[in-house]
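Deliverable D4.2, example record:
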Amino acid sequence: MSNESRAVLVTESCGRRCGDRLHEVLAGRGRVQLLPEGATLSAQQLADVQAAFLSPDLMKASNKQAPNPALAAFGAAVNSAPSLRWLHTAASGTDRPLLQDAMRRGVAVTSSPGANAASVAQTAIAGVLALARGVPGWVRDQDARRWSAPTLPRDLDGQHAVVIGLGAIGSRVARGLRALGLRVTGVRRQAGPHADCDAVAAQEQLPALLPQADWLLLCCPLNAQTRDLVDAALLARLPAHAGLVNVARGEVVVEADLFDAVRAGRLGAVYADVFVEEPLPAESPWWDLPRTLISPHVAAMSKGFVGRTEEMFLANLQRWLDGAELHNLARPG
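Output generated by the structure prediction step:
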């Protein structure tokens, strides 16, 4: 297959936004194969597709149990493209089954870490501030038209936060918490100095850190090492006043254990942007759990997110066309 005949698969929506830039990067070294929303492409149209972009417009109406129609159509196209060599995702994580399956087929998969780092980090810090000041209780009081007696929350200044994951998001979270006066211990695979943390511990040291932690923030990718990481045994090591913030993935936590810890008063408060089942069903007991704040997996969302992910894709497309090393190459698992 000649370079001129190879194709790059993008959605019609993505093509409208960055089509000019896409053709500029391709510079005659390939063509653009557009995928209309929800459409099915023929075998002939997919025969020369060698690269594809899972763009932000495909991530709307998040449902981990069943992809939305546009994402399902894109997945079908990717799985039916016999010459696919590279797939770029607008997400920072690569735990979607579509991406994991592609890697197992030998397709290079790259991601967009950092494109949403600022918004996710700001959301995590907002969660800490909201829980520290008792915002969930204010919301419930407002809904009930109830003027409650004031409480005396603990001062944030001088508290200890443990941040699991020190990638683009976790580093920003650590930096922001330190600016608020907290002491921050980062947790990653290996211990060692980090500019945004007061200390850094290896993951196997996590249980020993928790009895002195006021906050546990989950900012890590989902993989074999982090799946079900936070379980009843780990939660039991946290002080009863501690708060937990999850902007990682729902599967990093054993949700039943976390729910029981909050309900029983063994954990102070929780902010969660992510759950194992999304959307969270209306009958879920999480909606009524006191001292809990929930958002519908929106921490990454901001107006600039789409443009940043497209620029990261186009930069990697240039490298791919030049035969250079791709940035942010993912690993299976």
